């Protein structure tokens, strides 16, 4: 069974809310995610044990990749942040 990965991207620094989201595992290409509810996005893909990168497009039209945000040893319920990358205006 595939593990559901449900990230909740937030705080896009005034660029708007998330319009589209993708996840990439160490062993996969970019997988488009679907909105589950609210700010939660899901990728029904087997990503357990892989480091994860994310990409989002804001409702303002800006695209940003967040590479290697989550290490391969992650477990469900953990929170990871990336403070080094911001949308450009």
TrEMBL record:
GO terms for biological process: plant-type cell wall organization. Keywords: Cell wall, Cell wall biogenesis/degradation, Glycoprotein, Secreted. Residues 11-82 form the Expansin-like CBD domain. One of its GO terms (cellular component) is extracellular region. InterPro entries: Expan_Lol_pI, Expansin, Expansin_CBD, Expansin_CBD_sf. It comes from the Eukaryota. Pfam families: Expansin_C. It is a peripheral membrane protein. The keyword DNA-binding does not apply. It is found in: Secreted, Cell wall; Membrane. Causes loosening and extension of plant cell walls by disrupting non-covalent bonding between cellulose microfibrils and matrix glucans. No enzymatic activity has been found. Belongs to the expansin family. Expansin A subfamily. This is Expansin. It comes from Digitaria exilis. The lineage of its organism: Eukaryota, Viridiplantae, Streptophyta, Embryophyta, Tracheophyta.
